[in-house]
Amino acid sequence: MEDDFSELIERLGVTMQLPPLREEELKSATYLLIRHGYSEYNYKDKMLALQHGEESEEFKSLKLDTSMMDPGLHAIGIRQCEVN
Fold first, then answer.
1. Torsional class of 65: left (φ above 0), alpha (ψ -120 to 50), beta (otherwise)
2. Which strand (E) or helix (H) includes residue 84?
3. CB 76, CB 38: distance < 8 Å
4. Segment 5-26, tens digit of pLDDT
5. What's residue 50's pLDDT?
6. CB < 8 Å & 24+ apart, contacts of 38-44
7. First CA to last CA across the chain, in angstroms?
8. Span 28-33, average pLDDT
9. What's the pLDDT at 1?
């Protein structure tokens, strides 16, 4: 993993790798849910909360930003995909 991401990942508390499912769990599962990776929205949400607080106008305006309805993966999310 690149050093510049390591510090950011730790500071944001992002989980990078999940334990694999056991084969018996997969065979007996009715549903298998696949979670998305860390998105641009996740990143902006966390950074605004850290920089301005969750009660700030900057943080609240992100919730209304229509460009964040279906954002792409952040570079951290791409790394999550690569390590899982």
1. beta
2. none
3. yes
4. 788 888 888 888 877 878 888 8
5. 93
6. 38/14, 38/73, 38/74, 38/76, 38/77, 38/80, 39/71, 39/72, 39/73, 39/74, 39/77, 40/68, 40/71, 40/72, 40/73, 40/74, 41/68, 41/71, 42/74, 42/77, 43/12, 43/74, 43/76, 44/68
7. 13
8. 77
9. 42
Q: Which pLDDT band, with edges at 50, 70 and 90, does 42 fall under?
A: very high
pTM: 0.69
The token duo for 46 is 């966390």
- Tallying the residues shown for the chain, one arrives at 84
Residue identified by tokens 């991401």 is 5
Quick count: other Cβ atoms within 10 Å of Cβ 69? Answer: 7
